[in-house]
Write a structure and sequence with these properties.
Elements lengths: L3 E2 L19 H20 L1 H4 L4 H12 L7 E5 L6 E5 L5
Antiparallel strand pairs: 1-3, 2-3
Length: 93
């Protein structure tokens, strides 16, 4: 789960400057190589793993979209200190 610290009424923490897409090594690999993999899959991987059908393709698309703030999030505010956390929705895949 990814948490994003937004702000706090306490002056001990500076305001958060949000980065809308959090970097992830695994997600980065999927995004960078997905189109190439789709081209190579029928020739190199389909015999061993089966065809790249619509269900498998949709799972990859879910993983790529997972955890992006523009797809929705929930804000949580601490009643004691006023710290606000924003947690993006995930795909649960």
């Amino acid at each position: 789960m990814v948490f994003m610290y937004i702000c706090s009424e306490s002056h001990s923490h500076p305001p958060y400057r949000p980065g809308l897409d959090r970097w992830s090594m695994y997600k980065s690999i999927r995004v960078r190589h997905w189109s190439e993999f789709r081209k190579l899959c029928p020739e190199r991987f389909a015999k061993l793993y089966g065809p790249l059908d619509e269900e498998k393709t949709e799972e990859v698309h879910k993983l790529i979209r997972c955890g992006k703030y523009q797809n929705g999030f929930r804000m949580h505010t601490c009643p004691d200190c006023g710290t606000i956390l924003v947690v993006p929705f995930t795909c649960k895949s």
